[in-house]
Amino acid sequence: MKSIWVFHLNTGACNGCDIEIVDVLTPYHDIERLGVKLVSTPRHAHALLVTGPLTRQAYYAAKKAYESMPKKPRIVIAVGTCACSGGIFYNSYPIRREYERLSLEYPRKGGTSEFLPVDLYIPGCPPRPEEILFGIALLRGIAQKKVHPERYSPEELVLPRTQLLAWVELILRRRVRYELGYFDGYKLLSRFMELVEMSEEPEELKKLVEREKELTDDSRLRYGLEKLYEFYLEVLEEYRRILAMKKKEIVVI
To answer: Residues in domain NADH:ubiquinone oxidoreductase-like 20kDa subunit (predicted)?
Structure first.
């Protein structure tokens, strides 16, 4: 492909990334020399340049814009941290998320990948014009990047304990707020994660949770501890399932 026609779509950005895109179009950076042209309708676009987290209001318009593009090549480029993963807004109410989607790579939700297959991620808050230029160059094949198949051993797939606990806490934050609300829920979750760090096995954690329940007079907090323990077991089971699935995908050297 010698040139790419691009349609810019803002799905809820603060305009920081949009300003950088405008900067890329100026004579100083001159992205058109790479064969990139900004078009006014998705019907003429090869690529969709998305900025911002995916808001509930923007979802349907964004979906319609994507479906209006020609079927080939239909390239999707996520520009900025918000478009890549939801950014600082990932956990807020206006952001649309697919709750059933769970993975080790993308624990945060709210980015473009919630509803579109993303071909290129350009992270940054906001990304510099040079980074956007390099991303487009990679997409066009101007800057050749050596890409090799990723190969893992089963041991390398296991997350370090600190990283695993951070992943678990991120998932539990969303669940606990529906049970106890933001203030009490997050405060209780902080205490629960301290108990998790003190334990090595789920059975040991169960004993610590029971002891903590005996020390509190608030029935809501006792209920919250029970639910957190249940959620914790569910997340661990999901982690084991994902791990087993990924071990089957290992490329043998």
So the answer is: 14-137
